[in-house]
Design brief:
about 500 residues, about 5% strand, two-stranded antiparallel ribbon, 19 helices
Length: about 500
């Protein structure tokens, strides 16, 4: 009967087409043109919001791109922190053995440039609007320039020289152009200009804001622009500028550490005083798949999760037992598979009957065992947070004058929140404090998109990752300068041969 109905329907469709040959052209009821778009304040806000949405992914219900999952494959999976037991693209990255055909590398590149394209389009069109006030226009443009700076910062961290597109390319697009990548210094210059503009325009928060009708936490703010600019100066080793800007963020007096590390990452804690700039989600409206990717395998509470992005046991074991952050892992549990999941007592040990020695350990950072056990979750992802400000200022101060009392105190604020063993200034040199800072950044900021950039900035990417690989019996694979940057994605190289991967791992 079902087959018959389908055949009847097909015949009816064919008959309809045969009787209406002159009416096959589709009727278009609406389309965006230069005459009917970017006319009102609501149009401008919609364009601005669409750029924020690009931080998450292509569509509601499929939000696992860029800053809400896949970006971590490049920033953490390729270091001593992250581990993935799956084969294919993530396995390559986890083993620090990738090539230009890696799908995760290509997808991150694509999604970042989509944000840039949306931002450039919004900047170009909003700048030409005459129906909004100067204050509104400046606000919207500052937000777009801040978001574009995040994207270019991530691009240059990962690929170094990249193609530099701005709103000028919207006015006179050349879709066949095979543009050469711009040096990192040129991209930095654009970001610095954009962020200085954003700092002068953006409010410290959106309470009682005259442009937005609600307290829109999650939007770009003065403090966020200041700190992003400080991070660019850190990468340039412009220590004094970084120290000055982080001090300005602290002096705003609106940020503070959340009382507990565990509480900071709970799904219910969407926004707090530690957040400077975060990607927000609502499990019921536009949830992400962080819980799916980070949750533990065969867990009795968080069921049907993938443990796709996990942490190395080597990194987990580096925490002191007194450190509250060490409690943020699924180290042992009785799985729904009837096995006890736990860490092996030694490398290569054979598990007895009823036991599964896990190759890596799942973190609770985005897999809250007390949160909602749903397919889509509402976890926030902190792109910029206050603990990073304290650690960044300590880094800059150490490079300027060694382990001062202030610099060590800033790190101890972060340690103290988690009851970790505090540093003693008298026991430190500039070099040993530098090492302690890098280690602290790993403990505090793992899977927050910082690890690979940190290791490179400290000049320790090859040293630390190769030492980790050696400890676990793997091959030392990191070679500098070859692995300083990822290869340009093969599909992009095929389009634009000026994206030359010579000298990079291919």
């Amino acid at each position: 009967m079902k087959k018959y109905n389908i055949l009847v329907l097909a015949a009816a469709v064919l008959a309809q087409f045969s009787c209406n040959k002159t009416n096959l052209e589709p009727k278009i009821y609406s389309s965006l043109t230069s005459q009917n778009a970017f006319l009102t304040k609501s149009d401008a806000i919609a364009a601005v919001n669409s750029v924020y949405a690009r931080l998450k992914g292509p569509a509601v219900g499929d939000n696992f791109d860029y800053w809400t999952v896949r970006h971590f494959a490049l920033t953490d999976l390729t270091t001593d922190v992250g581990h993935c037991s799956y084969a294919g693209d993530p396995g390559q990255l986890s083993q620090v053995q990738w090539n230009s055909a890696n799908g995760l590398i290509a997808e991150d590149y694509r999604q970042i440039y989509k944000l840039i394209a949306n931002a450039n389009n919004a900047i170009y069109n909003i700048a030409a609007m005459s129906s909004i006030s100067a204050a509104e226009k400046n606000q919207f443009l500052a937000e777009m320039k801040f978001l574009r700076a995040i994207a270019y910062s991530d691009l240059t961290d990962s690929w170094g020289p990249v193609i530099l597109n701005t709103e000028k390319d919207v006015a006179n697009p050349d879709y066949k152009a095979q543009t050469k990548p711009s040096p990192v210094a040129d991209v930095d210059a654009l970001m610095i200009t954009d962020l200085e503009n954003a700092i002068s325009v953006l409010p410290t928060d959106y309470t009682k804001n005259s442009i937005y009708s609600t307290n829109d936490v999650g939007r770009a703010t003065k403090g966020a622009a200041m700190f992003l600019l400080a991070k660019i100066y850190l990468r340039e080793h412009a220590w004094q500028k970084a120290a000055d800007l982080t001090k300005q963020v602290i002096d705003l007096g609106i940020y503070q550490l959340y009382p507990s590390y565990e509480g900071l990452f709970k799904e219910s804690n969407t926004w707090c005083s530690e957040n400077i700039f975060s990607v927000l989600s609502d499990a019921n409206v536009n949830g992400t798949e962080l819980l799916n990717h980070f949750g533990p395998l065969s867990h009795p509470v968080l069921t049907d999760r993938w443990q796709y992005y996990a942490v190395t046991w080597d990194f987990y074991n580096s925490y002191g037992d007194e450190d509250d952050r060490k409690k943020m892992f699924f180290t042992q549990y009785d799985g729904v598979d009837g096995l006890t999941h736990k860490q092996a007592p030694s490398l290569g040990a054979t598990a007895p009957d009823g036991v599964l020695y896990m190759p890596d350990v799942a973190t609770m950072k985005y897999a809250d065992p007390n949160g909602a056990n749903t397919y889509y979750d509402g976890h926030s992802v902190d792109v910029l947070r206050y603990a990073d400000v304290l650690l960044s200022r300590a880094e800059a101060l150490n490079e300027l004058g060694g382990p001062t009392v202030e610099a060590v105190g800033l790190v101890n604020q972060v340690k103290g929140r988690s009851h970790a063993k505090l540093l003693v200034a008298a026991n430190l040199t500039q070099a040993t404090f530098r090492d302690a800072l890098l280690q602290e950044r790993g403990w505090e900021l793992y899977y927050e998109g910082k690890r690979r950039a940190d290791l490179k900035r400290f000049g320790k990417y090859d040293v630390i990752v190769n030492a980790y690989l050696k400890r676990i019996g793997a091959t030392n694979t990191v070679q500098l300068p070859r692995d300083e940057y990822f290869p340009y994605p093969l599909n992009q190289v095929n389009i634009n041969p000026n994206l030359n991967n010579a000298g990079r791992q291919q």
